[in-house]
């Protein structure tokens, strides 16, 4: 009987404690890996950070990319990016209603060829920073939370030829061959017709 009472007490205690342990804001994943095999990624990388709002009120989120401010916290084989202006998180701000989620995406701006050549074979670490505030007037104004998501960027060791350029060369060559065949057939047809008339 005592064992049953103890078990019931533990279950009731867990039922009371568990709702209090629920995280009010959940940010995932903790780490994002972006590996560029042959070409540099441009635009939306499709890598996303999900922010879940479990508060009973709306929250606002400000998001930006930053250099790791404590080098000791960086992964051993990763380095700083000199200029992170070509890596952004979009949107940079959002309001997330109560009990809902929102997705933030990592974007890369296009790089000129010289910058691409200087960044070949790099292994970088940058951080996506998210600042959470209350967006509702009825909630406590003291809510201020911050989250960091590690973003690891590996650039190609060497770039492959531009596939679009190769496709254009093939297309142009095909058109030239077709035109040459049409001109040749027209010429022979004209000569054949002229011989028959003589």
3D structure, described in words:
With 198 residues, the protein is an alpha+beta fold. It has helices at 2-21, 113-118, 163-197; strands at 25-28, 31-35, 43-53, 59-66, 87-90, 93-96, 100-108, 123-134, 144-154. 11% of the residues are buried. It folds into two domains: 24-160, Immunoglobulins (Immunoglobulin-like, Sandwich); 162-198. Strands 2-9-8-4-6 form a five-stranded mixed beta sheet, with no helix packed on it. Strands 1-3-7-5 form a four-stranded antiparallel beta sheet, with no helix packed on it.
Summarize the helices and strands and which ones pair or pack.
Blueprint: H1 2-21, E1 25-28, E2 31-35, E3 43-53, E4 59-66, E5 87-90, E6 93-96, E7 100-108, H2 113-118, E8 123-134, E9 144-154, H3 163-197
Parallel strand pairs: 2-9
Antiparallel strand pairs: 1-3, 3-7, 4-6, 4-8, 5-7, 8-9
